[in-house]
Amino acid sequence: MIVRTAHTHELDAAVLEAAHALLVDVFEGELEPSDWDNCLGGIHALAYDGDELIGHGAVIQRRLLHAGRSLRAGYVEGVGVRAGRRRAGVAGAVMEALEGVIDRAYDLGALGSTDEGLPFYTGRGWRPWEGPLRVLTPDGLVDTPDESGWILVFGGAVHAGSELICADFRDGDVW
Q: Is residue 149 a contact partner of residue 121, using CB atoms and an 8 Å limit?
């Protein structure tokens, strides 16, 4: 297995289509167009076995507000591994590549986890955010209590019991 990292602009249409198709398959048709759109514009980690794409993840930049500071967060999106290739280290290799990007380019990492992903991420050192979560929307600041326990952070000098605000509103899932 080889993991390649590249910015969205470095990937041709065929690679992006393959990554999108992989995620549609992995998420069993529940991948919304906005979910895919949220994967674009950052660094992709693409895991290959020969010519076959077997894993994907992306890290994009988002602004998070914490303790009076605007933090440059590497936000992880679209992590998935092809069925039949799971539990073989592919997701770990993808996340290792993304965490390296986060360590070198961002103040901290963040992501929104699924039920299935939570043990995987916490096992890698990602920590659930324990304080209030909010998002800055066109209508103002909105509490997002339903995200409690599912938003995880990685690295960074942050106090997990205090408030965390996502300062960049987007279509689809705000976190």
A: no
